[in-house]
Amino acid sequence: MGALYDSMSKSLDDRGIKKLLSSKAKYQTWLDVEAALAQAQGELGVIPKEAAETIVQKAKVENLDFIKMDEIYRKVGHGFVPFLKVFVLACGEESGKYIHYGATTQNIQQTSQNLVAKQIHAQFLAFTKDILNNLATLAEQEADSVMAGRTHGKHAIPITYGYKVAVWISEILLSVERMQEVEKRVFTTMMGGAVGAFNSTGEIGIAVQERVAEILEMPAMMIPSRNISSPKIEYINCIALLANNLHKIAEEIFQTSIEEFGEVSEGFSKGTVGSSTMPHKINPKLSKGMIANAQKLYSLTSVGYYSAARPFEADSTSNMLFDGIVTEAMELMTEILIRAEELTRTLTIHRERLAQNADMNKGLDNSEYIMMFFAQRIGKDKAHELVYELAIESELTKQNYRDVLLANEDVRTAFTEDELLEMLKPENYTGLASQLAKEVAQKCREVVAQL
């Protein structure tokens, strides 16, 4: 089982990623790598040039006899040999004998998986680019939408929704930086033979590997060992961090769309059904799918760490596991990204409810504002003590915070009633929230333009 799907999965555009993860695409990339190997060997005189040309020409999935391949699978019990045998048949006896010359199964399969991953990675970045553009628009639109900032699940001091979005943007930009940085280590080519030491090819094998790398536009591994798995773990970690950024957004939208908050809601189309028993239900379907798939994705890195430590020069148990978890990670990430793009593009912000919730405590959230005024006169510690006592009195006695403040002689001396009322308004104590939202949105657009 790969990604976790629901009814939303069928209605969202994966932009061709799922086709890249299909069996047909897998066989085609095996052919692409075999063709690149033959081309490189033909150019360097390892195999006849005419044979190389035929191999490249015939390296199309429609030339494979899958019925014959299945028959051979049942006989030989090997995951790659049946593919090779039908490809040899497709190329003819003379050219076919030069297929897979000096390479081993994992050379082709791991390079192939990296080739597929590179294509999917490009789509991941394209999705992320669109998500960032969506968020930049949201940050600009909601730069001045006042809301309650929250720490430890409780009201802290006021912010704006645009500022909240700017925080999301800044973290996703870090993930984009990581995703670009790992490309040179993850999407690589290996053609070193059985144990990676070029035993069957010698010096020319290194030249062949370099040429294959050029053809596939993926750098060659320094040592093409089949037992090096850290780049795969790094990549799963990398996309898991991006998934975590998007998971955070989904969690907040999921919770603040609850009726008691009512601050946001997912985009909704008439006719969508939320429950088979409760006709009124409009559920956060995009968010829930992001949350579930992200949680599953996190588990894959730890599995990879255990398997990467297998001993010796190669181990099929590790190869099998990484074939599975890399594919699964990409499937999970796809589901997260397609939902995140839709969610960030269609999210509805309920500004009146944001403002209502921000003023729920009738100015209590602006206690720091009052405290900082007094701190200039009596010092921070004494100011904190004074305002703390008044705030707690309001909480315990359930009195209006404004009335408690005005009953205090120090406060009455420092402010007029009108001045105090202005200081208690959430919109008058949002710091640089609006400015930061706009600046980050602009920075985001600049970065995205370079992707």
Automatic annotation (TrEMBL):
<dbReference type="Pfam" id="PF00206">
    <property type="entry name" value="Lyase_1"/>
</dbReference>
<feature type="domain" description="Adenylosuccinate lyase C-terminal">
    <location>
        <begin position="362"/>
        <end position="441"/>
    </location>
</feature>
<keyword id="KW-0456">Lyase</keyword>
<dbReference type="InterPro" id="IPR000362">
    <property type="entry name" value="Fumarate_lyase_fam"/>
</dbReference>
<protein>
    <submittedName>
        <fullName>Adenylosuccinate lyase</fullName>
    </submittedName>
</protein>
<dbReference type="Pfam" id="PF10397">
    <property type="entry name" value="ADSL_C"/>
</dbReference>
<dbReference type="InterPro" id="IPR020557">
    <property type="entry name" value="Fumarate_lyase_CS"/>
</dbReference>
<dbReference type="InterPro" id="IPR022761">
    <property type="entry name" value="Fumarate_lyase_N"/>
</dbReference>
<dbReference type="InterPro" id="IPR024083">
    <property type="entry name" value="Fumarase/histidase_N"/>
</dbReference>
<dbReference type="InterPro" id="IPR008948">
    <property type="entry name" value="L-Aspartase-like"/>
</dbReference>
<dbReference type="GO" id="GO:0016829">
    <property type="term" value="F:lyase activity"/>
</dbReference>
<dbReference type="InterPro" id="IPR019468">
    <property type="entry name" value="AdenyloSucc_lyase_C"/>
</dbReference>
